[in-house]
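Protein: Myogenesis-regulating glycosidase isoform X4
Species: Drosophila pseudoobscura pseudoobscura
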Amino acid sequence: MLASDFDTHSLASNQASITSVNSLASLLREKMQAFPQLIRKKKRETKDYKIKIFVIIMFFIIIFLIGYAYIAYHQQVLTKSYFQKIKFNSVDRIFRILNHDDKEVISGQLGVTLSSDSAPFHCLEEQRRSDGSVCIEWNGVARLHMNFEDKGVFRCYTLQWQALTPGLLPTDCYELKRDNGLWFGGGITKGQEWSLSYANFDFMPYASGDSKVHQFGNGVKRYFINSIGVAMQVSERTPLQLGINRTENQFCLRAANDDFTFVNRLTALPQLDYKICTTEDMRSLHMLMTQQSLWDGLKEQDIQVLHSLLEEPVWRIPNQDLPDSLNETVICDYSESAIAMGLGHIVINEFWQENIGDFSVDRARFPTLKDTIDVLHRRGFKVVFTIQPFISTDSVNFKDAVRRKLLIYERHSERSIPALTRYKSCSSAGVLDITNNASVPWLLEKLQRLKEEYGVKSFYLDLGTGYNLPHYYQCRQPLDNPDMYARMLTASLEGEGLMAVSTASVVPKPPIFLSTPPANATWEGLRETLAAVLNYGVIGYPFVLPGAIGGDYLLERSLTKMVTFYSLGQPPLPDPELFIRWLQLATFLPAMQFSHLPSEYRSDLVTRVAQEMKEVRQTVVIALLKKYLSPSMNEGLPLVRPLWMMDPHDPACLIVSDEFSVGEELIVAPILDAGREEREVYLPQGVWKDGIDGSLRKGSRWMHGYRVPKEKIAYFRKMPDNTRF
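Structure follows.
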């Protein structure tokens, strides 16, 4: 039984094992058969996953394109074309101007200070103008007028913002740099930047000042030009503030009143009014914006004086910081030393008076000044007296001027209380009120007496700058801004023989020159002199009188107040190398002015250089200055020009700040740093003759390591285009 049972169990177990093996084999076979299907299923799942991802991506792309199209459509709807070449979106106020080829040349944002939720609409009928201008208003906030003037190849657009609510300051910002274009104009700035595109300063009132202390220099003009063929001109009635932000790439104009520069509010709320002109040629555009005929009303005598200033030096009698340092002996001795260098204009500073504002000669120090002046006239010199609108409280004329109410008075006070200021050696002075009809005749009478008694025919008008007016000034008639004072006084005295003025905001009538700011007797002062001459030429002042060769004063410390707040005498004899390099530069400028004489050095090198420069000026420079005198008078082009005026399409000409041209036929590359006897020189296109060795040089290229010995200056005369090497 047990055996039988075992056998039976063993048989059943064997059968079960066989069945189990067969099942496993069958399962394996099934799995093996299903494996390809599983792989194919996995592939299908992967493929389906990729399709899903692709569909999702396409979905988002379509959504993005639809959104972009929606935004672009609405932008297109909101951006309207005005006068064919203006594109303006009145919602975000993006403003663009296109050129003749429909290429964008300038863009910016108008109304920067407007809130983003201000909705624009077209002005009501009574707010529109009949001159064809477009009028857009942001309800109760601001109003914008745009107009267009077609001048053939030039297209000019006028924009005028009117603030409609107190506290709003109309502000427009444009691209500071675009397509490698650079902004020029505005005169000299505090940082002495060659281009406004290199400047960086917050909003500052645009008015004449001392560039050592204030943002702008003594010569201003509301004119700016970009090398890509865009120029701006701002109305004189706009209380203009200028700001440049290199970080945000912005060049901004703002209308804002303040408590000094624009204290006389010409409108109830600020208005920003300016013009933009475009063309393909930067030089032609500059001529359009600065063009004016300076010939009107000129007499033959004026032309003779103008020529004499180009041909002969200006001799400034040296002085110390006190009036007693000047007397007849000083004048006679100086003129005898100067005559070896040539004749010219002898300028006597304000110390010919006992007190500033006397307008009469101090007889204690000048008992026989009339005889001295007669001797100087017979020798061929022209004597020039320095005059000022300031009247010292110590002057005999101060009480008379107060009694006649001829002086500027304190704001918010009776007109009998004069406003006082400080100027040079005078610590307390009143200022003639040029808007008082009695002031000019009073001054002219005293100048006429000087002419008759002493035979003086010329005057240097020392006005300081706009910031030399009393801070709380008030004139009988309100001034647009402090610079209007200098403009009105200069115009009133144009027929009295003015030789030069110390400040200007419009081009004075020839033969009047604009002086550069007083220069420190340092290498930095030398560089600043060249920058001032070139920058003033850019904004339309063709006749610029540089300061004295070697510097006007010497201060080792930084100035915290204007130079005109100090009574600064002649600087000590400058370093010979500085004097030589300054003399070499001045030889090629519109006029030359001496205080220290070359003979003071008792140096053969200085004497030889002075004689060589005298010969170069007489044989080369003066002829060119006279040749380009007429284009300067007619077209506003300066006699001494930056290189970009020769070739505005040459990128290298735009960045070169230490070379210049006399007219279009002479390139000058002075040395402006101590101890240097070589420099980089760039010559514009053409063939040029080297003034040092007489060799011919091909233009449109740089010359590296060009040698300039101490006694030489690099200059190159343009040769005919068919000149062969």
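Remarks: The chain is about 30% helix and 25% strand.
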